[in-house]
Amino acid sequence: MGKTVLLLGTGAMGSLAAQTLSAFDEVGHLILASLDAAEAERTAVRCRGEATAEAIDVTDHTRLVDLMRRADLTLNCVGPFFRFGLPILEAAITAGVDYLDICDDPEPTKKMLDLDAAAREAGTTAVVGMGASPGINNLLGAMVRAELDEVDLLVAGWNIEEKTGDTLAFSAAVIHWMEQCSGTILECRDGELVDGRPLEDLVIDYPGRGKRTIYTVGHPEPVSFHYSWPEVRRTHCGMVMPSAWIGGFRDYRDAIDAGRMTLEEAGRDLVEHASKSGLLDALFTHLSRLVDGPRLPLFFVLGQGARHGKPATVAASLRATPPDMAAMTGIPLALGAVMHLRGMTRDTGVMAPERAFGPQEFFELFAPYCTLPRPCPAKDLVDLVRA
């Protein structure tokens, strides 16, 4: 008999997660909960099987815990996670219910991973950051880590040069982007988590492609890689963009840090600039690509260290992906839930995806949803390269 799953947040990513999950026999009943009851109802209608809608204000801790206790598993798509991630996980621990989310903020990721002992005591298993980046990248990182006997460096990368089917519009995601490009960011250096500076040059040598300068950015992967593999000396997240763009991003960073712009003002200005600049930016982007170095994958993880006593570099990426960021985030969350319901979660307590799931098993489930630029069989989905 299928289990009852509670999904919090029925926006673009939550809706796709719900629709994907509803197709699996492991789920007998979906409870879709949102502050917007009509939105939850619309999502419920799109789901297969039994799905019901509930109105919920997630800041009402008592009501949230009561709702969680009606389910076998809670999925959290309510952002921003710097506000809602930690208290919703705390509610799940109070309710004694298992939990997955798509948290994309490094600071709450650290705070949630630090709840490991409390979750174990309550009998709660929680997987934090089961989306695209983090999520897909974490499982690519597990494949890279398995290829190296010793690891000095792990870099999770995402590429804003590559088209994903999305258009840039002002949203919470843009504000999040500005936040992770300003202030300080969590990175691991010499085996310790420290505050780093965003948008610093980071030169990598991608096997089979060559050297490229990417730019540091705040994201959960450097944090979770450190928690999952404390022996790794350095962890970073890098953003791939044309060098013609980095000056403008650093101007936003400096203005935010100096208090001349808020995150919202910087985000709105970025979106407005992107909508107006069009042809000129395309020209600068084309020219910068001539000198920037090789093109890199949309998502990737690169590791440097040793294999069989010799220096080695390994990188992993996907040959195909779902068509847009909503699908790339919502579908992995749904598949993580399916794996958990099948008893495939490898540990208990609070953990990141690289500790929770076997990457080969995940990518076998994920491959049928990867259609861009063309469908790819599961055995060929991950491009693992070595040097």
What this model shows, in words?
There is one protein chain. By secondary structure, the protein is an alpha/beta fold. The protein has 2 domains: 3-130 and 324-368, NAD(P)-binding Rossmann-like Domain (Rossmann fold, 3-Layer(aba) Sandwich), CATH 3.40.50; 136-318, Dihydrodipicolinate Reductase, domain 2 (2-Layer Sandwich), CATH 3.30.360. It is 42% helix and 25% strand. The chain is built from 14 helices and 16 strands. It has helices at residues 12-21, 37-46, 61-68, 81-95, 106-113, 116-122, 136-147, 172-180, 221-228, 243-257, 263-292, 325-341, 353-356, 359-366, and strands at residues 3-8, 27-34, 50-55, 73-76, 98-101, 125-127, 150-159, 185-189, 192-196, 201-206, 210-216, 234-240, 299-307, 310-318, 349-351, 382-386. The strands form 3 sheets. A 7-stranded parallel beta sheet has the order 3-2-1-4-5-6-15, with helices on both faces. The longest helix has 30 residues, at 263-292. The protein is globular and about 55 Å long. The model has no long low-confidence stretch (mean pLDDT 93).
